[in-house]
Write a structure and sequence with these properties.
alpha+beta, two-stranded parallel sheet, Beta Polymerase, domain 2, 3 domains, 464 residues, binds adenosine-5'-triphosphate, binds magnesium ion, single chain
Length: 464
């Protein structure tokens, strides 16, 4: 068993004052009960670099049942990874997991028949702290903070890499990326958000293995696509994904518009929109997720127009949206509701640019749940392109007068009920047959058959 490099309290910047008090209580209770209690993963990385962690994950040698017994307000969750969620007031959850070791590589060959079972069993193999560090993705994500000594424990060379501002996989990059191709996206994301360099081996391995990203589960990829946009480092992350060729694997349609061929004003507009969205995020302005995703679809809509649809009247815009959004939404398993909001947002954006609030019919747009999405898109587009300034000002004023306000962090896809389907007015329908979104997919992106209440119907019992 290897001995970690130990950085004593005096040698690192992590003070208990920066640790979430509830996470700290959990660490202390584990320690008092005779278990190891470590802060693990992203929180240690962020505290070491003076950032505010998103969440405080805890690692321990206590088994899930033992953790469960220590915390009344907890629940064991997960089928594959059995970890414990400890609940606090206000919906806060702290995740506590037993140290695990890396599953055998041969068992996690993705996509193979019957591997699911192996995955389940192997992922639950508990391990030592060292094994738990080694199973993690990047050295900077493999550090522990030990509540017993207040020291940072480094089994993987993470401290050196933090100092050298380097993203390096734990172990051979090609192997680690083949095990889980989503790690390639994460490498770029961490490089972008921390302003670190990816180590040469990482870049070479991405070049070699990037095609394998197609094998990864669509919802995981979609989540990675959204996360940097949501958190304010979208432009840098997308630039790295584009540069490393990863974007061309997951979003070839977008890549064609924004990264291939000669430079164009539209392309610059796209990158400026992402940078502007990031900037707004850091100042606390809310841009809802469908608007962020809508920004990714906008170059495709423009591309379709350029390639022959001509000027976009309403029916053409509707048809174009179906053609542009549906295949990607399907491929990425985007939740149906989010897709509706994206289409509504883009469609309404078209309306906002061609009508003014002085038109009574147009003013009703403000009452729609997706109006703020369209307005965010108009605002981003207008600032990035220098166009539609007047329309933006007019619609923003209406929005303010209507007292509509978007709260930062508001997640529309869950909060707002979806009011109605995108049903074009009858006049449009009669001229153009536009397929409406019909798939009955649930929020988690899986297709489910509607279940009959009370299960299968049985024949009525014979009357006595
Ligand atoms: P943040 O939550 O701020 O985005 P994070 O580092 O905490 O960053 P998470 O996705 O929350 O990222 O994962 C927590 C930790 O779990 C990571 O720091 C890393 O140690 C480990 N981890 C996450 N995803 C993987 C993966 N695909 N392969 C190996 N280890 C992973
Ligand atoms: Mg995290």
């Amino acid at each position: 068993m290897a001995v970690p490099r130990i950085i004593p309290r005096a040698g690192h910047p992590i003070s208990r004052g920066y640790i979430d008090p509830d996470a700290l209580r959990i660490l202390y209770r584990l320690h008092r009960a005779g278990y190891q209690g470590y802060l693990v993963g992203g929180s240690v990385r962020d505290l070491m670099t003076g950032r505010t962690p998103k969440d405080f994950d805890i690692g321990t040698n206590a088994r899930p049942q033992e953790i469960r017994r220590l915390f009344r307000n907890s629940r064991i969750i997960g089928r594959r990874f059995r970890l414990v969620h400890v609940f606090f007031d206000g919906g806060k959850i702290v995740e506590v997991s037993t140290f695990r070791r890396r599953p055998d590589v041969a068992d996690v060959e993705p996509g193979g028949e019957g591997t699911e079972d192996l995955l389940i069993r192997e992922d639950n193999t508990f391990g030592t702290p060292e094994e738990d560090a080694l199973r993690r993705d990047f050295t900077v994500n493999g550090l522990f903070y030990d509540i017993a000594t207040f020291a940072v424990l480094d089994y993987v060379g993470g401290v050196d890499d933090l100092e050298a501002r380097t993203i390096r996989t734990i172990g051979d990059p090609l192997t680690r990326f083949r095990e889980d191709p989503v790690r390639m996206l994460r490498a770029c994301e961490f490089a972008a958000r921390l302003d670190f360099q990816m180590e040469d081996g990482v870049l070479q391995a991405i070049e070699e293995a990037r095609g394998e990203l197609r094998k990864s589960a669509a919802p995981r990829v979609a989540e990675e696509l959204l996360d940097p946009l949501r958190r304010g480092w979208g432009a840098q992350t997308y630039a790295l994904w584009s540069k490393t060729g990863l974007l061309a694997v997951i979003l070839p349609e977008l890549t064609r518009e924004i990264a291939e061929g000669p430079a164009s004003p539209e392309r610059e507009t796209f990158w400026r929109m992402l940078a502007d969205a990031d900037q707004r995020r850091t100042t606390g302005e809310a841009i809802q997720e469908p608007a962020l995703l809508g920004a990714l679809f906008l170059p495709l809509v423009f591309g379709a127009v350029r390639r022959g649809h001509g000027k976009l009247d309403a029916p053409k815009l509707l048809a174009t949206l179906e053609q542009v959004v549906n295949p990607i939404a399907l491929r990425l398993s985007l939740p149906n509701q989010a897709v509706h909001f994206i289409k509504h947002g883009l469609y309404t954006l078209g309306r906002l640019t061609e009508t003014r609030p002085s038109d009574a019919a147009a003013r009703r747009l403000v009452t729609k749940a997706w109006f703020p999405i369209a307005l965010s898109l108009l605002s981003l587009y207008s600032h990035a392109s220098g166009r539609y300034g007047e329309a933006l000002a007019a619609w923003e004023e209406v929005m303010t007068r209507a007292g509509k306000k978007v709260k930062p962090g508001e997640d529309l896809s869950h909060a707002a009920p979806f009011p109605e389907a995108l049903v074009p007015p009858p006049a449009l329908l009669s001229r153009h047959e536009i397929p409406l979104p019909t798939a009955s997919r649930n929020d988690d992106g899986r297709n489910r058959r509607p279940r009959r209440r009370g299960g299968r119907r049985r024949p009525a019992p014979p009357a006595r």
